[in-house]
Amino acid sequence: MRYLVIPLVLAACANDYKLTGEAVNVNPEDVTECDFTRVESTAFYRYDCNPVFTTTDEDWAKSMGSTTFHVTEVVGHPFYQLWYTAYENTTDDWPPYNVGYAASPDGTNFTPNPHNPVMGQPEKAEFDYDYMSGLQVVWDPIEELYVMIYQGINDSNGGYGMGVATSPDGIRWTRHSKNPVYDLHEAVGSVQNWCWPLGLDLGENGGYTGYIAGMERSGNACEAYRLNASNLGDWQPSEKKALAAGEEGEWDDSGFSGLAIAGLGDTRYMFYSGFGYWTRSGNYQVATNLFLGVASMGPGEDEWQKWGDYIPVNNTDDGRVSAVAARTVATRIHLWITDDYDGQQAVGYFLYDPDRAAEEDAGGGDSGE
Fold this sequence. Notes:
Order of helices and strands: EEEEEEEEEEEEEEEEEEEEEEEEH
Number of domains: 1
């Protein structure tokens, strides 16, 4: 049995350039078109004009699949980029797909590239002919390339691996000559096979680092493991689990479809899309009942601590929160969360702002929606 995540997968954000000094602590409501409303009993705030990105205006992209998100600092100003797989229709088991690109100056208004699609479906014999999911992108300033990793599937010949593509500008993409660079069937230690990439960033001492979902021999959950590469053709998952799925009966007991990491002060936060059920689809199982969870790691700690219940940002009762991206600016974490909007997967904008929530609670201000 092979596994895939049908909903979108968003990567954690990474910066091309490092800024000196502190980021200006601007209240997003002062510069965005709409306000933010607090999500009840949390420190999360929902943008009132969600969703901020859909593909409804593109003829070739009637239905959106997997997506990755990236933030670049240009002269101290963030520039937001989005890549996504999309389909003309979803009536076939494996509809033909392409990859599109969109950009935004503010994270709320995304414009699709007029030359979309920027990457097409490969030849029929390739491992990723039928499906491309779990997209993750990082900018490598040394190689001066965008690097993308993803899960690829070829249903007819059993292809199931992790692929790499590179681009000098985010628009012209080339698949790596060694694809698939990692066989997702390959067992490592107690892990019987791998599900899909969860995140990607630059390594502190060169190379690449991130997370990948893996399934133990004794279980049926796609849990989080570290992923490292010294170069684009050599990727190695860790045998040590970084974040475990919930206990049986909990909302995230089947694992994770995506995650993003950001920090505030001395605390790091992992925002993840966890799911509770598998739904069979032909030779594959599809992740369903997805909600947003949080884990944190304080100073001196070396393991992630889950918060428990999911964060109630979901638009549907059955849970279709498939992906999340995060970026810290001063005292807030900005989040882009993929969810179901009127029957279609689209991207919404949120804030995690514990200082504002504490002030409201202390002053008897707005405590809910």
